[in-house]
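Field reference: sequence -> structure
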Amino acid sequence: MKQFSVPMALVDYIPVLLFLLAADRLIRDLKNKMGKAAYIMFATGSFLVVCAGFLKASYKLLYALNVGDFTWMSNQLFSNQSIGFLLAGLGIMMYVLDKNNRAYSFLPTMALVGIMVVGLGAMDAGLCFLANKMKKRNALVCFIVSFFLSLMMGYLSSKDFDKAFMNWMAQGINTVGQLLLYVGVSILHKAGLKDI
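Structure field:
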């Protein structure tokens, strides 16, 4: 049994309200100064953060009032707030970079690299979990090495690719990384992945 009280639940609304007020003030102050993409990202991200926090606080209040245990209201918090803060942060950074006359493409590129690393990391972490569950240590090693080779590709992408040597090195690393991913997946397939 969770130890939520009505006062605790009501206090949980305070940071949600404060974030809402801050985001609203930023949206009003920067609306006509932000580019459309930056504005949409910031507003959408802020909306997700507020909704996630409101649902979590409401979950606590409903639980404390013995209305019910609506766990989905609690479980959604982390994923929605993570995505919301990411979008809001990217929106503000796009505004700042644009205002400082920096290369406007820098942030979207870095954001995409970050999203790619997080997504690839999540995929490989999930595959490592499955390999460990299936007791296929060789597949586990393949996924780990493949992930680090992919990270090396991210590092190499910041280098001068006008030289043939850099292109060959990058393609070699990428090929080995993807080969290891394929080998790891093949090991899990042969071990009966579709049956677990």
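Note: The longest helix spans residues 36-64.
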